[in-house]
């Protein structure tokens, strides 16, 4: 398509370089090809999965870069003519703070997302220390400051409003706190799902590498 500046979008968009992007395609197909019967972008039958990969192969013709490093992505917006990409608020907030005319939007189809987690190994050598660390990470003041630094929402909702750190209610809203009902959070694809046999995650990994490589 031709963008408002009169130039084509080909070579000016980015896509994420992780297999979760298969779910982004599936989410789009849920809205635009309901006959496929997709009910969850993370639970795909072979036919649904093939349709998602085909959509991504078409997108491959437009993609300038599959991004992973947020700072490289921002540099592409500043210096390489990129005009559209999936991201999280971190990149948008920093670019806006530098005066670049960018904004973010959740598509009408909704969006995928994930929660960053901390886990303890079942055979942790020092479980008491590990539990103390995990308890520390859940403190309101740490969550408040971390959410500002990372451009995300705190796992402790009170950290948005209790004044324990740098975060504010307005900041949490900007980071999408009020949009959770429009986000489908990542669940690892497994072969057995409620609708029958689904494509497992290891296939997502290998096949998405192929899509990025033009296969």
Q: Kindly, what is the distance between the CA atoms of the first and last residues, rounded to a whole number of angstroms? A: 23 Å
Which series of helices and strands comes N to C? EHHEHHEHHHEEEH
Q: What Rg do the Cα atoms give?
A: 19 Å
Number of domains: 2
- CATH topology (fold) name of the largest domain: D-Maltodextrin-Binding Protein, domain 2
What is the β-strand count?
6
Strand order of the largest sheet: 1-2
- In CATH's first tier, which class of the largest domain applies? Alpha Beta
- Helix/strand/pairing category: mainly alpha
- The CATH homologous superfamily of the largest domain is termed Periplasmic binding protein-like II
Whole-number average pLDDT?
Answer: 93
Helix content: 40-55%
Mass-distribution shape: globular
Largest sheet: 2 strands, parallel
| CATH architecture classification name of the largest domain | 3-Layer(aba) Sandwich
**Strand residue percentage:** 5-15%
Number of helices: 8
**Low confidence ranges:** none
Fold topology:
Blueprint: E1 13-16, H1 20-32, H2 46-60, E2 63-67, H3 70-79, H4 89-97, E3 111-113, H5 127-137, H6 140-150, H7 169-174, E4 183-185, E5 192-193, E6 196-197, H8 201-212
Parallel strand pairs: 1-2, 3-4
Antiparallel strand pairs: 5-6
Helix pairs in contact: 1-2, 2-8
Notes on the structure:
This is Spermidine/putrescine ABC transporter. Keywords: Signal. The structure is a single chain. By secondary structure, the chain is mainly α. It has eight helices and six strands; from the N terminus they run βααβααβαααβββα. It has helices spanning 20-32, 46-60, 70-79, 89-97, 127-137, 140-150, 169-174, 201-212; strands at residues 13-16, 63-67, 111-113, 183-185, 192-193, 196-197. α1 (20-32) crosses α2 and α2 packs parallel to α8 (201-212).
